[in-house]
Design brief:
It is built from 38 helices and 27 strands. The protein is of the alpha+beta class and about 950 residues long. Among the domains are: about 290 residues, Beta-lactamase; about 130 residues, no CATH class. Strands 2, 3, 6, 7, 12, 22 and 23 form a seven-stranded mixed β-sheet that branches. The protein has a five-stranded antiparallel β-sheet with strand order 14-13-27-26-25, with helices on both faces. A three-stranded antiparallel β-sheet has the order 1-10-11. Strand 26 and strand 27 form a beta hairpin. Helix 24 packs across helix 31 and helix 35 packs across helix 38. The radius of gyration is 36 Å and the shape is globular.
């Protein structure tokens, strides 16, 4: 019998209980959300608008930059800035507000902040105003701009629809290539649509209209708007909308509409604030350069943070939306010291974006101050003297050089290395960059994207050249280039970056080397024969360079010693010194560095066999040139030779002495792998033989080397469709059947002759040192390098590190860092050497036959100097160029304190630059001249203009 047991009552499941509890909790939360976001939305929105808080950042003043006497070269001034903050009410009134603001700015002659690279020209055509002239940089800037505005999304959808994983690098490149095909006008149309500008004419469209507008293209919408607004009008709205969108990506709701506005304008806006939701006026510091262009090449300028550097600066605490940074010169090098510490205020704002209450204030702290070695008075004389001298040379009624449009000056304290002046012309006013977005279209083009076609047309016409714009300014990828360096660039620091041949200003060093090596004596004379053909056993019978640049003036200087040679700049004398140095050193490859070993000690290049830093020591950007030496010349020659040999082989003609069927030598993407291997093998053999020039006595001779090339040449002939076509074209002209073996042998012999005989002989020829002895050949240095050389020469052999900065101080004046004079090298020179060089340079400035005597004849302080006139290249007249006019000097003669270097591009004669040196000396020796030579001070025109007429000092009280 089965008895039914009563069922046990099941206990509730913990899991089910948990689910019930969680369901209740979420139901409450969900209900609360519905209550807050739907039923009470308007109430809470109003309360949020009227009680929201935000942090208002306050820019920190940049540190002050002083000259050595405490004159302020860069400081800050408080100006009015107009801001726009996004709020609900501001959005509703956007177009009315912006219209009112634009009208006020226009009526008061104010501009607004405009960093948008999408511009509109006078023909109502949109275009991109790039901030660089390099095509690759322009492409990168354009791609970044289009990607930031989302144009890549449609391209990616068209190219790779349905792809879920990230795009590969090659796919990204494909997208970028498509982005570059989108024209500025198409971008304009796209922004008009995406920024909803149709609300200008239909502020409250119905749902049907919204759908209709969404289906219309940007071009169609723009055409509708064009009935009332021009392209420029529409761009003004795009400008603000775009700034707000870009800021929204970065978490900001405010943009700057206008900076540096006048007080009267600010007051007008302040009176209308109730009708301008979102608009506010505040005081902000902006950079001020009291002397405008003065020392701009040294000071540099500030600019908004480039998009490619945003992440780097954001990590360093910068506000990438509004902060400006130094982008060149001292402003850039000492950015960390100058930038200061930002502060700001936490405030409550209402629905119009107005501040209703300040909650917390964080004080700003100015940046540290930088004290330069620059002397304002000397700098002014250098800049104005250079500018006026260039204009005088350019417009001379007797011997004009219309191409003289550029130049540079450097003045150095010879016993410390402190740079007293550094001028580059043309220069610029850094004040125009101190306010973000206020460059005019014309200024943007002038500085960042010059119209080389327009410039080229005027250039050719003004010089009467038989050239086309395409010949002088060839287009590469659609962008005109300037391979002959014809366009004057205001941003290019010709003093620290312009590499120039020194010409005869190098001769004092050649003389010094000869005296120190003992190959000449101070009183020994060398007879100038007019042409340097006295050593055919060393240089060959065809080598006979002229003694003088202007051979119609003199056929010979007769018996010449070192002082007279420097006075009259006798080439023959210094050619002979170079020859003697070469012979003394062993007449071999090592002997080719005889001059270079002295030049390196003076800062004219560095020994390529060492790891010495190639720098003068200055704190700002510089180039660094090299003196002639075997290794550097060999490397340079080989580099150019690779292009020469390509041109010879592919033309089918070698210097008019050997002809053959054009050979396929260049690499081509369409080449098969085997063809690529054959070409690589041939080029590797050529490169290896080049490297052995002058260093391996067992290297293969011409015939033996040619034999090693034949197999590779034949392989290329058999594999290259291009070469086969060349053969077919040759035979089609009825010239007979081509013997490929004979052709291969000819090409091998041509290559071997070029590498071993012609180029090899050129590389190892002692003739290069002869050219170098008078500052020609591969010798190229910046004016700053020449200043290091001349100051070392002037002080008797102590080479100092050149520098622009004396010290860094806090805003309170406490010294953070001080820069003491630093000796780089100490050259032991004989007193007789120093005296002979000084005497020769004194004669150049003062004796009747001296090359600069015309300028310094009446100057009351004894000086030494040397002119230099060096060609740009052998075809300079064809392209409108002329010799560089270079001049170096020091003063006083017996106890030098200051050294000067000046160059005027295309200035014609070295002596033409000497007046700038006199202006610099007048400013430097101002107190001495006024005390000891008052008559000179009162009668000298240049003294009155560059010293008495200099701008007043500007110091902190």
């Amino acid at each position: 019998m089965i008895v039914n047991k009563p069922k046990k009552k099941k206990k509730p499941s913990r899991y089910k209980s948990f689910l019930v509890i969680m369901g209740v909790v979420f139901a409450i939360i969900f209900g609360k959300l519905i209550y807050i976001q739907i039923y009470k939305h308007d109430d809470y929105k109003e309360r949020a608008d009227t009680t929201s808080t935000k942090f208002v950042p306050e820019k920190a003043p940049r540190g002050i930059i002083y000259d050595q006497n405490g004159n302020i070269l860069a400081t800050n001034t408080q100006t009015y800035t107009m801001m726009y903050t996004t709020t609900e009410e501001a959005n509703k009134m956007f177009f009315n507000t912006i219209d009112t603001v634009f009208k006020i700015l226009s009526e008061n002659g104010e501009g607004f902040t405009d960093d948008l690279i999408l511009k509109v020209n006078e023909n109502n055509e949109p275009y991109f105003a790039y901030k660089t002239t390099a095509k690759n940089d322009q492409n990168a800037e354009e791609i970044r701009f289009k990607r930031d505005r989302g144009l890549n999304e449609k391209v990616e959808k068209d190219l790779y629809s349905g792809k879920e994983e990230d795009l590969t690098d090659s796919e990204i490149e494909s997208v970028n290539a498509k982005l570059l095909e989108i024209t500025p006008k198409e971008v304009f149309y796209d922004l008009v649509k995406s920024y909803d500008l149709i609300k200008l004419i239909d502020p409250n469209p119905s749902s049907e209209k919204i759908k209709e507008y969404n289906e219309m293209s940007g071009e169609a919408l723009t055409n509708l708007l064009r009935s009332k607004y021009s392209f420029k009008d529409l761009r003004n709205y795009l400008l603000i909308k775009d700034a707000l969108k870009i800021q929204s990506f970065k978490g900001y709701k405010s943009v700057t509409l206008a900076s540096n506005i006048k007080k009267d304008t600010a007051l007008i806006i302040l009176q209308k604030l109730n009708d301008l939701p979102g608009i506010d006026i505040k005081l902000e510091p902006i950079r001020l350069y009291p002397y405008n262009q003065l020392a701009s090449s040294v000071l540099g300028y500030i600019s908004p943070i480039d998009s490619s550097n945003e992440q780097k600066y954001e990590l360093r605490g910068y506000d990438i939306s509004s902060d400006l940074i130094g982008v060149s010169g001292i402003e850039s090098t000492f950015e960390e010291q100058l930038k200061g510490v930002k502060g700001g205020t936490t405030v409550k704002v209402n629905s119009k974006g107005r501040v209703t209450e300040e909650l917390f204030k964080l004080e700003t702290y100015p940046g540290n101050s930088v004290h330069l070695t620059i002397d304002k008075g000397v700098q002014y004389a250098a800049e104005q003297g250079l500018k006026d001298t260039i204009e005088s040379i350019r417009t001379s009624p007797t011997d004009p050089y219309p191409g003289a449009t550029r130049g540079a000056v450097v003045a150095v304290e010879v016993n410390t290395g402190r740079i007293l002046a550094s001028a580059s012309y043309p220069n610029y006013d850094p004040n125009i960059f101190a306010v973000s977005g206020q460059l005019s279209n014309a200024q943007t083009k002038e500085y960042f994207s010059p119209d080389l076609e327009k410039f080229g047309i005027n250039y050719i016409k003004s010089r009467g050249l038989n050239k086309t714009v395409d010949e002088l300014f060839p287009a590469v990828d659609g962008v005109r280039t300037d391979p002959n360096d014809l366009y004057p660039r205001a941003f290019y620091n010709y003093a620290t970056q312009g590499l120039i041949p020194p010409g005869s200003t190098f001769k004092p060093l050649t003389g010094l080397a000869g005296l120190e090596a003992g190959v000449i004596q101070p009183t020994e004379t060398i007879y100038d024969q007019g042409k340097f053909n006295a050593h055919p056993e060393t240089y060959g019978t065809a080598f006979a360079p002229e003694c003088l640049l202007y051979t119609n003036y003199h056929s010979s200087h007769g018996d010449t010693d070192i002082t007279h040679a420097l006075e009259v700049s006798c080439n023959y004398y210094f050619y002979e010194v170079a020859y003697r140095l070469y012979k003394q050193a062993g007449s071999n490859v090592e002997a080719l560095d005889s001059l270079a070993k002295y030049a390196w000690k003076f800062g004219l290049g560095t020994d390529p066999n060492t790891k010495e830093r190639a720098s003068t020591g200055i704190e700002i950007e510089e180039n660094f040139g090299q003196v002639y030496n075997f290794k550097s010349f060999k490397n340079q020659s080989i580099l150019y030779a690779k292009f020469e040999i390509r041109d010879y082989l592919e033309s089918g003609d070698y210097r008019g002495v050997r002809s053959f069927i054009p050979f396929d030598y260049s690499n081509n993407d369409a080449d098969s792998e085997k063809l690529k291997e054959a070409k690589t093998s041939l080029k590797d053999k050529v490169a290896a033989r080049f490297e052995k020039i002058g260093t391996d006595s067992s290297a293969l001779g011409t015939d033996a080397f040619a034999k090693t090339l034949v197999e590779d040449i034949k392989n290329i002939m058999n594999l290259s469709d291009k070469y086969k076509q060349n053969v077919s074209d040759y035979e089609a002209k009825g010239k007979g059947k081509v013997n490929l073996d004979s052709q291969a042998q000819t090409i091998a012999e041509v290559i071997a002759r070029f590498v071993v005989n012609d180029k090899g002989s050129e590389i190892t020829s002692p003739a290069q040192e002869v050219y170098a002895s008078i500052g020609q050949g591969m010798n190229n240095f910046t004016p700053t390098q020449l200043a290091a050389y001349v100051s070392t020469l002037a002080n008797g052999g102590t080479r100092y590190k050149l520098h622009f900065v004396d010290k860094i101080t806090t805003p309170d004046g406490a010294v953070v860092q001080e820069y003491e004079p630093e000796v780089i090298d100490k050259i032991q020179l004989k007193d007789s050497t120093i005296n002979a060089i000084r005497e020769g340079m004194y004669k150049a400035n003062n004796d009747e036959g001296g090359t600069a005597a015309r300028v310094f004849a009446n100057f009351p302080i004894r000086t030494g100097g040397k002119t230099g006139t060096a060609d740009f290249n052998e075809r300079q007249k064809e392209i409108g160029r002329a010799p560089y006019a270079t001049y170096v000097s020091f003063a006083p003669l017996e106890n030098p304190q200051i050294a000067f270097v000046g160059v005027i591009y295309d200035g014609g004669h070295g002596s033409s630059t000497a007046p700038v040196a006199k202006a610099v000396y007048e400013a430097y020796f101002k107190e001495k001249i006024e005390k000891e030579f008052p008559a000179y001070a009162s009668t000298s025109t240049s003294y009155q203009k560059y010293v008495t007429g200099a701008p007043a000092n500007n110091k902190l009280s």
